[in-house]
Amino acid sequence: MRRAALLFLVILPATAPAAMLPGDAGRGQVLHDRQCTACHDSRVYTRPNRTVKTVEGLIGRVKLCNQQLGTKLQRDQLNDLVKYLDEAFYKFP
Ligand code: HEC
Q1: How far apart are CA 68 and CA 63, in angstroms?
Q2: How far, in Å, from the CA of 65 to the mean position of ligand 1?
Q3: What is the pLDDT of residues 22-73, one digit of tens each?
Q4: Whose CA is nearest to atom 2 of ligand 1?
Q5: Is 30 in the pocket of ligand 1 (CB under 6 A)?
Q6: C-alpha distances out from residue 90 to 29, 35, 43, 54, Å
C-alpha cells in the first residue's frame, strides 16, 4: 500500500508538464492561423518524421519560428501557441 503511494508520487511529475502548460489554446489557434502558416501548414506537426518529440522541443521550435516572423510575438502569445499545438497535434503526455 505504502509502496503504491510512493510510486504514484514518483510518476506524477513526469506526466504533469504538458497538462500544466500555461496559455490558452483557443487564442493560440487564432494566432497560429494568422501568423504561422506562411512557411508551412499544420501538416508539419503530424507528419510521420516530425522533429518535435518533447514539450521542451516544442517550446524551442516555436521560439525559433517566432524569430523568423517580422512582428515577433510576446511570451504569453508563445504560451498560447504551444498550448494549442500540444492540445491539437502533439498531445504530449
Ligand atoms: C519563416 C518561415 C516560418 C514561419 C513564419 C514559421 N515557421 Fe515553423 N517551421 C519553419 C521551418 C523551416 C520548419 C522546419 C520544417 C522541417 O523540418 O521540414 C518549421 C517547423 C515547425 C515546427 C516543428 C514541426 C515538427 O517537425 O514537429 C513547429 C512546431 C513550428 N514550425 C511552429 C511554428 C509556429 C507556431 C509558427 C508561428 C509563430 C511558425 N512555425 C512559423 C519555418 C517557419
Answers
A1: 9
A2: 5
A3: 999 999 999 999 999 999 999 999 999 999 999 999 999 999 999 998 878 9
A4: 39
A5: no
A6: 14, 19, 12, 9
